[in-house]
Write a structure and sequence with these properties.
- The protein has helices at residues 3-14, 22-28, 35-48, and strands at 19-21, 51-53.
- The longest helix has 14 residues, at 35-48.
- It has three helices and two strands; from the N terminus they run H-E-H-H-E.
- Strands 1-2 form a two-stranded parallel ribbon.
- The protein has one domain (3-53).
- It has 59 residues and is mainly α.
- Helix content is 56%, strand content 10%.
- GO terms for molecular function: sigma factor activity.
Amino acid sequence: MDLQKIMAKARDIAKSTGTITTEQLNGLCPNSMESKDIAALFTALRAEGIRLKDDESRP
């Protein structure tokens, strides 16, 4: 898992709104991510000021 690549893509997605949806984030991450990697990703998102929001397509 390359956290730097995931963060670069997350920055691009969040550039205009400052947010990324859970669906978008899931699409960037490999299925084999371990819990420590997920925790590191959330920490990095917070440090960048990127907020995670619920998917807009859900009722």
